[in-house]
Write a structure and sequence with these properties.
The complex is a heterodimer. By secondary structure, chain A is mainly beta. Helices cover 0% and strands 50% of the residues of chain A. Chain A starts with a strand and ends with a strand. Helix content of chain B is 0%, strand content 49%. By secondary structure, chain B is mainly β. The model of chain B has no long low-confidence stretch (mean pLDDT 91). In chain B, a hairpin with a 4-residue loop joins strand 5 and strand 6 (61-64). In chain B, the strands form 2 sheets. Chain B has a 5-stranded mixed β-sheet with strand order 1-9-8-3-4, with no helix packed on it. A 4-stranded antiparallel β-sheet of chain B has the order 2-7-6-5, with no helix packed on it. The chains are: A mainly beta, B mainly beta. At the A-B interface, strand 4, strand 5, strand 9 and strand 10 of A face strand 4 of B.
């Protein structure tokens, strides 16, 4: 049973570029959440996708967008990259209906913006 | 969302029991308490979750007093591999909610 997988593991971009990160949820899960974790900080919620729609969104600008596919996998897109976007981007999956509060995290994608 | 407060760091020695306390004074009736563990450059890993009293699994125990305004994660007989950041989260039941992480507690286990 595969857990949450993310690709790529590492990425280097320059300011102003665009990036796409990918996530495959744990088998049986249909909800995907994305988090940004800056060095030394806890993960910060970006948004959550369920049934191919954005259901909840944290305090992130519109430069951050996402998508969920029919197979429940998801993409996170960041446009016009800033130096401050350098972080570990985490994907977490879970299952609805809402009886289990547990979210399962992937290993993350380390993004460095130069 | 209820805010949590936990120590920034703790040191312990191998074989000792470690207790990490988290304060959540504004916890709501439908909130659950969940603890995650995170190693460097890895995603957080679920450790334990509870609503009230005591919960125990193969990894840890979670003690929650009657007023639920705090909780204590107990790790029995820690080893060097337990060195990690531990996050206490409070959130309503259900996956249709965002997890709010604080800065966590850096636990360092010394030989």
């Amino acid at each position: 049973d595969a857990g949450v997988t993310q690709s790529p593991t590492h990425l280097i971009k320059t300011r102003g570029q665009q990036v796409t990160l990918r996530c495959s949820p744990k088998s049986g899960h249909d909800t995907v959440s994305w988090y940004q974790q800056a060095l030394g900080q806890g993960p910060q919620f970006i948004f959550q996708y369920y049934e191919e729609e954005e259901r909840q969104r944290g305090n992130f600008p519109d430069r951050f967008s996402g998508h969920q596919f029919p197979n429940y996998s998801s993409e996170l897109n960041v446009n016009a990259l800033l130096l401050g976007d350098s972080a570990l981007y985490l994907c977490a999956s879970s299952f609805t209906p809402e009886l289990d509060v547990t979210q399962y995290f992937g290993p993350g994608t380390r993004l460095l913006v130069l | 969302l209820a805010k949590t407060t936990q120590p920034i760091s703790m040191d312990s020695y191998e074989g000792q029991e470690v207790n990490i306390t988290c304060s959540h004074n504004n916890i709501a009736t439908n909130d659950y308490i969940t603890w995650y563990q995170q190693f460097p450059s890895q995603g957080p890993r679920f450790i334990i979750q509870g609503y009230k009293t005591k919960v125990t699994n193969e990894v840890a125990s979670l003690f929650i007093p009657a007023d639920r305004k705090s909780s204590t994660l107990s790790l029995p007989r820690v080893s060097l591999s337990d060195t990690a950041v531990y996050y206490c989260l409070v959130a309503p039941s259900g996956s249709a909610r965002q997890l709010t992480f604080g800065s966590g507690t850096q636990l360092t286990v010394l030989p």
